[in-house]
Design a protein that fits this description.
This protein is about 20% helix and about 35% strand. The chain is of the alpha+beta class and about 230 residues long.
Length: about 230
């Protein structure tokens, strides 16, 4: 009798373990929404290769400009000089002609607005919704300047709730960084959002000939939206 009870208990334990295991594996995976085809779709529904980065993910990872996307996207490369954005390449396709007749091989869009020259998009990533890197020829969606692919940068839009956020950081070489965001509902139909980003770096190379430090710089940027 004792042996039968032990076997019965073991069977019920195995059933309970199987049910628990099934519950663990049935967790819902968070869907990633992208707009690479000019309409919102889940990442699994898009029939092209897309690397998507949410705004909160970029903030935690310290991705503050296009160079961060280059570092974390397979097949995406770019030079690291001051004008490196002009030489972005996806899957080895790059444009090295930066004259008046040359077009970039990678198109960059910010909130749907195309940048005529990649070098003019040395923008800082702050108050971001997401960034998408679309690989492969995208002339149908992005135009003729997207033979290698495209980058779509989407900033956060005004929302119906009051929201405010301030963040600051300091680092060596007299570097500091500040970001401030304020969202205000003006009425039942109008909403305002403003963001400001400031970064100052003192430099890390001493200029013996002319004095001062090299390698530093100042960035001040603001963005306002009304809807």
């Amino acid at each position: 009798m004792t042996i039968r009870a032990s076997k019965l208990t073991s069977r019920f334990s195995a059933i309970a373990l199987a049910i628990t295991s099934g519950a663990v594996h049935s967790e819902v995976i968070e869907e990633i929404i992208v707009s690479a085809q000019y309409r919102e779709q889940t990442l699994q529904e898009v029939p092209v290769s897309v690397s998507a980065f949410r705004g909160d993910m970029m903030e935690k990872a310290g991705i503050d400009d296009v160079r961060g996307l280059v570092d974390l996207t397979p097949g995406f490369n770019g030079k690291t000089e001051d004008s490196f954005i002009d030489a972005l390449s996806i899957r080895g396709i790059v444009t090295n002609d930066f004259g008046i007749g040359g077009d970039p091989s990678v198109a960059i869009f910010t909130d749907g607005v195309w940048a005529g020259r990649n070098g003019g998009v040395q923008m800082s990533f702050y108050d971001m919704e997401r960034a998408e890197v679309v690989k492969g020829p995208q002339s149908t969606l992005f135009g003729r300047n997207a033979i290698a692919g495209g980058i779509s940068i989407i900033t956060k839009k005004p929302i119906e709730e009051f929201e405010g956020k301030i963040s600051a950081s300091v680092a060596e070489y007299d570097e500091y960084e500040f970001t401030g965001t304020l969202n205000i509902p003006l009425s039942d139909r109008w909403f305002f959002r403003g963001s400001t980003y400031v970064k100052d770096a003192g430099g890390y190379l001493g200029n013996v000939a002319g004095g001062g430090d090299l390698g530093g710089g100042e960035i001040t940027s603001s963005r306002f939206a009304l809807r």
